[in-house]
C-alpha cells in the first residue's frame, strides 16, 4: 500500500488561442498571477491562474535571466499533499512543447531550493537536481516534446520531501506533428526531454523569438557556447542569409546558423562533453552551415562525427550535402548512453572542424495510463468520502509509478496496456461521507478495506457487480439499512466483514448460504441483522398466501371490533338515559351513599354485583 499522502487540484482554462489555421496553439500561464501579464520586448502574453485553487500564490523570484520576467509563483506546501497538478483543458490534440519554469519563494530565510519531480501526462519527465538554482542555465526549467491526445494537458508536481514545489510559469506551445522525428520509435509512446540546446559561437543566449524564428518552432531556448574549453576554437559569424533553415518540421531560426565554432589549424578536432544520466537513450541533433568564406566548394571540408567514441556520421561534406554554402544541414542520431557523459567529437578528414548548434534530448518512454472510467470512479469516491489532501489523489492514480495515489493498489494489464485498480485500502483514515454507487466502476477490485472509519448511509447495491471482489471489509463504520441482496452474486467473495455497523434486516439467503460453506464473515454488533445461524431469527417466513390470509384476518377483526364498540356505546346510552330519570328524584348525597354501599356489596356478594357497580359507578361520579 502506498503511503504517500497528498491531494490534487485541477484547473481549467476556458480560453485558448487557436485563431488562425496556421497559428500554432499557444498557452502561457504566469503562476500565482492575479492579472494577465505581458512581458517586455516580445510583448508575450501570460495568463493569470487565479481560477486555480490549489497551492499558494505568492511573490517569488526568478532564479535566472532565462526565466520570463514574472514576479509571482505558486507553491505547494506538503499540507496540500504530495501530488499537485495543473490540468489545462481544451488543448487541441497535437504535438507540443511543454515548458515549466521553476521559481523560488521570495523570503530571506528561504535558502533551500525545493527538489521535486515533474510528470507530464503521467510520465515522470524530470527530477530537479540539487543546486539547480545556482546554475544560470537550462536547469531553471523542464521542457518536453510530447503528443497531447485527450484535450487536456496534465502537469503534476510531486514532492520528494525536499521543500515545496514552486512554479513560476507554464508554456504549452504547439509544434509540427513531425517535429524532431528521430526514427520509428517516435510517436505517442515517447517523450523527448530537452537536455541541452547550444548555439555555438553566439555570444548571447536567445529564444527563437529573439532570433525571429517561426512560431511553429516552439520558441526554443538556445544557450550560448563560445568555447568547448580547448583554447583553440574560433567563433565564426556571418550576416549572410541562410537558406533551408526555417523549414518544416523543425523551423529552425535562420540566425542559428549565422554563428559557428571552428578550430585553428594546429588542433583540428572539436570535442564537447556534457553530463547526462546513465542508461538512457539520447536523441542528438547537430546543425551545420558552411559560413566560412574560405571554404568555397565540396571536398574542402570533410568531417567524421563520433558520439562517445563511435563514428555516428562519416565523411560529412557540408557544402555537398546542403547543396552549397550558407545552407543549413541538420543531422540526427539516436544513441544509447551507459555512462554519465555524452561526448560529441567533430573529427575532420579534410580542413577544420566546424559546428553551428547542438541539441540533445533524453528519450523517455511514456507511461501507460489508468483506465479512464476507473480514474473517474476514484474521483467520485474522493469527493464522496471527503478524502483529505494528504492522500494526494491528483493526476493519474497509478503513474508516475514513483508517485501513486495512497490507498489505491494498481495492476498493469499487458493486453490493453492500461493500469487498473485492484485494491482499495482506506482503513482507519478518519473518513466520513458515504460510499457512492460509482464504486462499481472499479470493476477489477479484489479487495476493499474501509474498516474503522465513520462512513454512513447504505451499502451500495452496485457492489454486487464487482465480480472479482474477494475481500470486503466495511467493519467499524456507520452503514445502515439492510445488506443488499446483490452481494449474494459475488461468487469469489472469501471474506466479508460487516461487523460494528448499524445494519438491520435479513442477511440475503444467497450470501448466508454460501458463506456457511468456507468463506469467513462477521456480522456481529449491528442494529438488527437476522436470518443466518449465529444471528437472531427473523421470525416465521410467510408465503404470499399466508400474508394475504393474515391481512384478511386483521380486516375482519377490525370490523368486529367496530361493531362491538358501537353496540356497547348504544347500550351505555340507554342505561344513562334510565339513570337520569332516577337521579331527578334523589339528592346527590343519597346517590353517593348508594354507590358506597354498592361497592361494599361487590366485596361481599361476588362478581355479578361487582359488574353492575362498575357500570353504574362512573356514570354516577361524572
Ligand atoms: C507581492 O508584492 C506586491 C507588490 O509588488 C505586494 O503588493 C503584495 O502584497 C505582495 N504579495 C505578497 C503575498 O507578499
Ligand atoms: C532523423 O534521422 C532519422 C534517421 O536516422 C531520419 O529518418 C529522420 O528523417 C531524421 N529527422 C529529421 C527531422 O530530419
Ligand atoms: C535576407 O533575408 C531578409 C529577410 O529575412 C531579406 O529582407 C533580405 O533581403 C535577405 N537578403 C538577401 C541577400 O537575400
Ligand atoms: C534504448 O533503446 C533501445 C532500442 O530502441 C531499447 O531497447 C532500450 O530499452 C532503450 N533504453 C532505455 C533506457 O529506454
Ligand atoms: C482491514 O483493515 C483492518 C485494520 O487496518 C485490518 O485489521 C483488517 O484485517 C483488514 N481487513 C481485511 C479484509 O484485510
Ligand atoms: C441511514 O442513515 C441516514 C443518516 O446517516 C438516514 O438519513 C437514513 O434514513 C438511514 N437509512 C436507514 C434505512 O435507516
Ligand atoms: C467479529 O467482530 C467483533 C467486533 O465487532 C469481534 O469482537 C469478533 O471477534 C469478530 N468475530 C470474528 C469471528 O472475527
TrEMBL record:
UniProt superkingdom: Eukaryota
The keyword Signal appears for this protein: yes
Residue stretches spanning the membrane: 548-569
Gene3D superfamilies: Galactose-binding lectin, Ribonuclease Inhibitor
Coiled coil, from the record: none
One Pfam assignment: LRR_8
InterPro entries per record: Leu-rich_rpt (IPR001611), LRR_dom_sf (IPR032675), Malectin-like_Carb-bd_dom (IPR024788)
GO cellular component, one term: membrane
Keywords for the protein's UniProt record, in alphabetical order: Membrane, Signal, Transmembrane, Transmembrane helix
Malectin-like domain location: 29-362
Protein name, as recorded: Malectin-like domain-containing protein
Organism: Lithospermum erythrorhizon
Amino acid at each position: 500500500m502506498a503511503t504517500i499522502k497528498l491531494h490534487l487540484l485541477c484547473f481549467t482554462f476556458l480560453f485558448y488561442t487557436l485563431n488562425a489555421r496556421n497559428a500554432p496553439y499557444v498557452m502561457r500561464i504566469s503562476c500565482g498571477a492575479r492579472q494577465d501579464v505581458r512581458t517586455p520586448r516580445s510583448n508575450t502574453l501570460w495568463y493569470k491562474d487565479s481560477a486555480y485553487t490549489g497551492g499558494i500564490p505568492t511573490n517569488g523570484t526568478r532564479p535566472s535571466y532565462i526565466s520570463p520576467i514574472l514576479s509571482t509563483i505558486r507553491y505547494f506546501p506538503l499540507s496540500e499533499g504530495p501530488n499537485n497538478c495543473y490540468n489545462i483543458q481544451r488543448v487541441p490534440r497535437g504535438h507540443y512543447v511543454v515548458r515549466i519554469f521553476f521559481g523560488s519563494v521570495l523570503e530571506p530565510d528561504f535558502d533551500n531550493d525545493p527538489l521535486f519531480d515533474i510528470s507530464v501526462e503521467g510520465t515522470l519527465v524530470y527530477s530537479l537536481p540539487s543546486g539547480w538554482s545556482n546554475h544560470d542555465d537550462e536547469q531553471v526549467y523542464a521542457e518536453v516534446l510530447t503528443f497531447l491526445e485527450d484535450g487536456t494537458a496534465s502537469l503534476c508536481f510531486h514532492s520528494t520531501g525536499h521543500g515545496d514545489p514552486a512554479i513560476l510559469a507554464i508554456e504549452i506551445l504547439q509544434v509540427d506533428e513531425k517535429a524532431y522525428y528521430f526514427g520509428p520509435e517516435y510517436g505517442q509512446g515517447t517523450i523527448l526531454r530537452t537536455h541541452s540546446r547550444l548555439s555555438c559561437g553566439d555570444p548571447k543566449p536567445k529564444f527563437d523569438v529573439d532570433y525571429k524564428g517561426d512560431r511553429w518552432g516552439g520558441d526554443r531556448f538556445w544557450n550560448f557556447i563560445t568555447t568547448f574549453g580547448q583554447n583553440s576554437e574560433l567563433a565564426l559569424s556571418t550576416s549572410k542569409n541562410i537558406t533551408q533553415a526555417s523549414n518544416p518540421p523543425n523551423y529552425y531560426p535562420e540566425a542559428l546558423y549565422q554563428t559557428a565554432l571552428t578550430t585553428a589549424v594546429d588542433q583540428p578536432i572539436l570535442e564537447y562533453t556534457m553530463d547526462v544520466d546513465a542508461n538512457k537513450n539520447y536523441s542528438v541533433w547537430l546543425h551545420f552551415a558552411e559560413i566560412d568564406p574560405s571554404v568555397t566548394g565540396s571536398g574542402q571540408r570533410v568531417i567524421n562525427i563520433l558520439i562517445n567514441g563511435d563514428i555516428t556520421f562519416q565523411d560529412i561534406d557540408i557544402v555537398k550535402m546542403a547543396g552549397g554554402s550558407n545552407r543549413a544541414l541538420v543531422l540526427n542520431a539516436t544513441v544509447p548512453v551507459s555512462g554519465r557523459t555524452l561526448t560529441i567529437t567533430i573529427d575532420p578528414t579534410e580542413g577544420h572542424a566546424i559546428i553551428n548548434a547542438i541539441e540533445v534530448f533524453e528519450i523517455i518512454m511514456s507511461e501507460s495510463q489508468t483506465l479512464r472510467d476507473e480514474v473517474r470512479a476514484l474521483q467520485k469516491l474522493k469527493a464522496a468520502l471527503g478524502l483529505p489532501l494528504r492522500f494526494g489523489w491528483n493526476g493519474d492514480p497509478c503513474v508516475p509509478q514513483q508517485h501513486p495515489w495512497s490507498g489505491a493498489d494498481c495492476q498493469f494489464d499487458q493486453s490493453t496496456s492500461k493500469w487498473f485498480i485492484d485494491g482499495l485500502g482506506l482503513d482507519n483514515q478518519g473518513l466520513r461521507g458515504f460510499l457512492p454507487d460509482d464504486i462499481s466502476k472499479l470493476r477489477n477490485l479484489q479487495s476493499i478495506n474501509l474498516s474503522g472509519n465513520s462512513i454512513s448511509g447504505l451499502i451500495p447495491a452496485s457492489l454486487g457487480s464487482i465480480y472479482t471482489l474477494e475481500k470486503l471489509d466495511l467493519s467499524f463504520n456507520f452503514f445502515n439499512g439492510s445488506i443488499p441482496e446483490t452481494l449474494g452474486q459475488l461468487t469469489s467473495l472469501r471474506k466479508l466483514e460487516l461487523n460494528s455497523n448499524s445494519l438491520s434486516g435479513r442477511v440475503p439467503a444467497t450470501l448466508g448460504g454460501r458463506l456457511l460453506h468456507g468463506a469467513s464473515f462477521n456480522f456481529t454488533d449491528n442494529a438488527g441483522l437476522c436470518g443466518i445461524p449465529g444471528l437472531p431469527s427473523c421470525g416465521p417466513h410467510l408465503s404470499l398466501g399466508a400474508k394475504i390470509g393474515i391481512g384478511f384476518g386483521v380486516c375482519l377483526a377490525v370490523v368486529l371490533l367496530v361493531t362491538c364498540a358501537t353496540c356497547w356505546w348504544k347500550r351505555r346510552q340507554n342505561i344513562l338515559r334510565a339513570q337520569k330519570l332516577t337521579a331527578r328524584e334523589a339528592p346527590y348525597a343519597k346517590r353517593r351513599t348508594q354507590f358506597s354501599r354498592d361497592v361494599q356489596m361487590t366485596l361481599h356478594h361476588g362478581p355479578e354485583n361487582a359488574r353492575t357497580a362498575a357500570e353504574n359507578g362512573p356514570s354516577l361520579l361524572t
